[in-house]
Amino acid sequence: MELTVSTNHPNNNFLSPRWNSNPIRQTINKSLHFSQPIQKKLRRRISNLAAANNTGYRTGSNSKSDKINNNTLATTRTSSAETETVAMAAGNGKPSSAGNGNTALEQLDFERGVCIPFRKYSPQTVRDKVLESRGAILSLIGRGVEIVWKLGLYWSTLVYDYFVGRDEEVVPFRASQLRNLLCDLGPSFIKAGQVLANRPDIIREDYMNELCILQDDVPPFPDQVAFNIIEEELGQPLEAVFSKISSETIAAASLGQVYRATLCASGEDVAIKVQRPEIEPIIYRDLFLFRTLASFLNGISLQKLGCNAELIVDEFGEKLLEELDYTLEARNIEDFLENFKDDPTVKIPGVYRQLSGSHVLVMEWIDGIRCTDPQAIKEAGIDIDGFLTVGVSAALRQLLEFGLFHGDPHPGNVFALRDGRIAYVDFGNVAVLSQQNKQILIDAVVHAVNEDYAEMANDFTRLGFLASGTDVSPIIPALEAIWQNSLEKGLADFNFRSVTGKFNQLVYNYPIRIPERFSLVIRSLLTQEGICLTLEPDFKFLEVAYPYVAKRLLTDPNPALRERLIQVLFKDGVFQWKRLENLIVLAKENVAKMSSNPALRGESRQRSKQWRIERKLDLTDTIKDGARLFLLDAGIRRQLLLALTEDSKLHIQELIDVYRLLEDQIDIPSVALEVAQDLPSVARDVMLSWSASVLSDR
User: Fold this and answer.
1) Which of 44, 428, 540, 555 has the fewest beta carbons under 10 Å from its own?
2) How far is 248 from 18, CA to CA, in rounded Å?
3) Is the pLDDT confidence value at 351 over 90?
4) pLDDT tens for residues 149-203?
């Protein structure tokens, strides 16, 4: 089995840094042919993962003897998404069942394609925290009585409505009551409500719509308390670090609040995020109660979602405790900085590690325009359509290229800068998609394009939406109806909200569970589409998304994407010439738009040409791989030859049309040189393939 070990976790800094004497270093350098920068990143990450001893390395907190033989370890970096893939030669690749409390977490790791060596959240850790003293137990009992009483009263009103036959007509009122009740119960319930607003597998759509307006705004805690926390974290007085600091909060939320300050040393403006005092014990206490209540709902949950209710709580608890750790948020910022370091259209704030800790985070101040203020954006000389193109491209890169994406891009976290860049803030809520998950997502897109709904349903199982072994046949017609209805409307009228509305009905009626990371994907896409429509009501999300995806399919050297490109170009064994032409046209459109910042106008855009990243569609690797595949793969060779002679005629005109689309993009002499340099390797592979076939025949 291939297992991804995630280092995007607060408790992975548990190891001694004796990297030079560690045998994994020799394995990295000798077994893998990475460039020096990549090897450097790997060494930095694995030094935080691997125990500095020669006996082996634990890959899970519950495994008894998960040792990795140094001769069988292979580590590869996946994008920049804080993951390393570790292929283990030993073991059956199945989650262990060492302890009932952690089985749900092991199932989550298995679905995600990741394994977190040491995690902050586990049911046992939560239990130990809340039962550590008599005072904590009394607090737990009091809080439990409060929750059961308030939720019980609300539940009784629902039961009464049902028996008197008015349950449907009072839904808007009851949904509003639920929102107010969650606000009244505090931070944990506010966060739970925000999660439920994106979980159509758990609650009805009308309740979801009400919870979508659930605000995270709460009264700020006293400024002096916040300043004391900052001084305690810094180990020195405020005046020694900051020349000035805002007397009031800039923003306050359920988990913390933000101040603006100026550094003494450099005069730079910074944002200081301070965690609400004593919030962690409250969160642990509520999580314990959530899980206790969930244990009584396992039967219903198994029937409706195909999983235990405790697994839902574990997903939520793991994410919530990650948000509480500001050292993890600092690492998230650094990863986003690394991912977008060569992108002149995206701004990620810097983080001041030496001034930050687990309860205080000091970041570069972002002075931008709220992305829901079209008039201010226009007055700043920014082209709105171009800015939206920049935003959609950045979102797609996070999701499909990096596998590390912003999970809460609401209007308060996304800004337009006066130089045309898009800026993101607040990286506490991010999600990671493993390489495996990204590939399955792309598979689902390919199957949708090819209208292969049976395979789309199987993709749902592979992503964790359906329990393994679930009969997908009843879901296939529903998927087909949703997708066909969207296609009939055409690209101009397509929007994610209408599709997710129909999808919500599907997941509510079938035993489908939406994994937490994908609920964040859906939330992120819907939020960003909402921002786009606020700025430009006629904006077409897919008109920007398609060219990006086309360019990725045609130019990305990832072997998995090469395979998906072939699947897109062949439908029912027939080569799709028109589809290839459309892909090329769309990819060229993406390159043309993003060759300079499309958000800038006139002279500003001319000046931005120094930022150009790519001027042409670089298909060199694609052509090389295509030539290699044609020579080595008899099936592909036969299909391509059939494509050229389909319907008893030579399709020379189609070849000419494709060439004309590409002639201004390809430097033929350099491509020919690249192909020629690759010929010895291709010849070797051809000989090996031929000899293998001869031996197999004998």
Assistant:
1) 44
2) 45
3) yes
4) 999 999 999 999 989 988 888 998 999 999 999 988 988 998 898 888 878 778 8
Q: What is the predicted pLDDT for the residue at 602?
A: 54
- Name the 3-class secondary structure at 169: coil
Please give the average per-residue pLDDT across 489-510, as a whole number. Answer: 71
pLDDT in tens, 459-487: 888 888 888 788 888 888 888 887 777 66
pLDDT of 674 strictly over 70: yes
Q: Which helix (H) or strand (E) holds 151?
A: helix 134-164
Euclidean distance between CA atoms 155 and 288, whole angstroms:
21
DSSP H stretches of helix in 204-249 = 205-211, 223-234, 238-241
Alpha-carbon radius of gyration of the chain:
27
Number of C-beta neighbours around residue 540 at 10 A: 16
Phi, psi (degrees; rounded to nearest 5) at 419: -95, 10
Which one, of 395, 396, 391, lies nearest residue 421 by Cα? Answer: 391
Summarize pLDDT for 29-78 with one digit per residue, the tens. 333 344 444 444 444 544 544 433 333 333 333 333 333 333 332 333 33
Crossing angle for the helix pair 516-535 and 309-324, nearest 10 degrees?
60
Contact 405, 431 (CB under 8 A): yes
Where residue 560 falls (left for φ over 0; alpha for ψ -120 to 50; beta otherwise) is alpha
Residue 574's identity, in one-letter code, is V
Residue 325: other Cβ atoms inside 10 A: 19
Contact 427, 353 (CB under 8 A): no
Instruction: Please identify every residue annotated as catalytic.
Output: 408
Three-state DSSP class for residue 631: helix
CB 675 within 8 A of CB 623: yes
The alpha carbon dihedral of 574, 578, 581, 583 has a sign of negative
SS3 at position 36 = helix
Q: For 354-427, list the strands marked E by DSSP.
A: 360-364, 369-370, 404-406, 414-416, 422-424
Identify whether the C-beta of residue 63 lies closer than 8 Å to the C-beta of residue 118.
no
The whole-angstrom separation of Cα 645 and Cα 467 is 45
C-alpha span between 522 and 199 (Å, rounded): 10
Give the residues across from 272 on adjacent strands: 259, 362
* β-strand partners of 258: 251, 273
Label residues 126-160 b or e (16+ Cβ within 10 Å = b).
Answer: bbebbeeeeeeeeebeebbeebeeebeeeeeeeee
Q: Are 47 and 21 in contact (CB under 8 A)?
A: no
**Host H or E run for residue 333:** helix 326-339
Q: How many CB atoms sit inside 10 A of residue 660's CB?
A: 10
Chain position carrying tokens 């293998």:
692
| DSSP 8-state secondary structure symbol assigned to residue 71 | T
Percentages of the chain per state (helix, strand, coil), in multiples of 5: 60, 10, 30
- Give the angle 622-625-628 at the CA atoms, nearest 5°: 150
Nearest alpha-carbon partner for 182 in 150, 160, 209 = 150
The residue to which tokens 């009091």 are assigned = 142
> Which residues 6+ apart lie within 8 Å of 423 measured at CB?
346, 347, 348, 349, 366, 368, 414, 415, 416, 417
d(CA 83, CA 195): 25
Q: Mean pLDDT over residues 105-114, rounded? A: 67
User: Euclidean distance between the first and final Cα of the chain, in Å?
Assistant: 32
Q: Structure tokens of 375? A: 């008039």
For 106-221, strand residue ranges (E) read 114-115
Q: Which residues contact 450 (CB under 8 A, 6 or more apart)?
A: 567, 568, 571
Query: Which DSSP string do the residues of 299-331 spell out, in sequence order?
Result: HHHHHHHSS-HHHHHHHHHHHHHHHH-HHHHHH
